[in-house]
Write a structure and sequence with these properties.
The strands form two sheets. A seven-stranded antiparallel beta sheet has the order 1-2-3-10-5-8-11, sandwiched between helices. The protein is elongated. The chain folds into two domains: 195 residues, Jelly Rolls; 123 residues, Homeodomain-like (Arc Repressor Mutant, subunit A), CATH 1.10.10.60. The longest helix is centred in the C-terminal third of the chain and has 25 residues. Strand 6 and strand 7 form a beta hairpin. It is 47% helix and 20% strand. It contains twelve helices and eleven strands. By secondary structure, the chain is of the alpha+beta class.
């Protein structure tokens, strides 16, 4: 039976400025399941939230007028009565979602999915307007069996079937309250069918613009995990919920393979540590091992190939050059 309750409409207009953020936080948590949202320092926080709840679905239009962040961890997830998938679309502003080591940055016209059973975090930009559709997981699994593979995938809502869905989504948010109660269930069913069609059409790899964004995110992930021995194609595939084949294909657009990218970044970090004074007392093998090079002879060969000197000769030259540079600086300071 269709829920006949009127929509929830809320805003901060009548609230004292110091109370606005706390009130917004309470409303957002009620609308979007449980979140841990730290308080921010702000003189005022003008915002609104408009939501319809029908047949277990929640259709929400909300704003945030300043930068806000939040997390969903085990404590928040444990309080849910069932599993949901949430479609998040950015109508204005920007938002970053983090799923473990994977981040997705959404700007106006982009959308993605998040899973209520998985820990995650968000951080908004200034002046965010977000539309969302919270759906019981079973309703999307029935339409798109591979829907879990699309969690955290940035999707472009400005072209093609993605644009058709976003146009429909925005119109639904604007007009849903005008629909007669008996027709709302059918309209929402049609919305989920269109969403299912849109998700089902998503390629194994996203469109070129989003592919470049995903490659950038993957390269940042590599930089953040360089010291991990298991870093490689398989680890990236797990972190970004892709096949290993598609990870390789994604890097075809860059100047290097996955393995070459990881090796070059690790060598660059070894070079940094060898030429600096902070780790001057540390053995070269320790530095190499820290950055994932377990075989000293192989490391020496790779380092020489990249920088033209053995690690030992490179460090010796850097140590000789350092005092000369300090002397030059000191003299320049004395004569200034």
């Amino acid at each position: 039976m269709v829920d006949a309750n009127p929509p929830d409409t809320w805003n901060t207009h009548a609230l004292p400025a110091p109370r606005q953020f706390d009130a917004w936080r309470e409303v957002i948590v009620d609308a979007h399941l449980a979140w841990d949202i730290p308080r921010i320092a702000c003189a005022a926080f003008p915002a609104y939230m408009h939501q319809h709840r029908v047949d277990g679905l929640r259709l929400t239009d909300c704003t945030a007028s300043a930068r806000v962040s939040g997390t969903r961890g085990r404590a928040q997830i444990a309080g849910d009565d069932e599993a949901y998938l949430n479609v998040v679309m950015i109508a204005a502003g920007a938002e970053t979602l983090r799923f473990g080591a994977h981040e997705v940055h959404l700007t106006e016209g982009m959308f993605t999915l998040w899973d209520s059973t998985r820990p995650m975090a968000f951080a908004t930009g200034d002046s965010l307007r977000q539309l969302s559709l919270l759906v019981p997981e079973a309703q999307l699994l029935r339409r798109v069996p591979r829907v879990r593979d699309l969690i955290g995938r940035p999707m472009d809502g400005r072209h093609g079937i993605g644009g058709l869905f976003v146009d429909h989504f925005q119109a639904l948010v604007q007009r849903f309250g005008e629909l007669p109660q008996p027709s709302r269930h059918s309209v929402l069913d049609a919305t989920l069918d269109l969403l299912g069609l849109c998700l089902g059409e998503q390629p194994a790899l996203p469109a070129p613009r989003l592919r470049a964004l995903l490659l950038e995110q993957m390269q940042r992930h590599i930089d953040a995990h360089l010291t991990e021995p298991g870093l490689g194609v398989a680890a990236l595939a797990r972190a970004f919920r892709m096949t290993e084949r598609n990870v390789h294909k994604l890097f075809e657009a860059s100047d290097a393979t996955v393995c070459a990218t990881i090796r070059a970044r690790r060598l660059a970090m070894c070079r940094r540590d060898l030429e600096g004074s902070t780790l001057a007392a540390r053995q070269i093998t320790e530095i190499a091992g820290h950055w994932g090079f377990e075989d000293p002879s192989q490391f020496s060969k790779l380092f020489r190939g990249a920088y033209g000197l053995s690690p030992r000769d490179f460090r010796r030259r850097a140590q000789v050059a350092a005092p000369r540079d300090e002397t030059t600086v000191t003299r320049a300071h004395l004569h200034s």
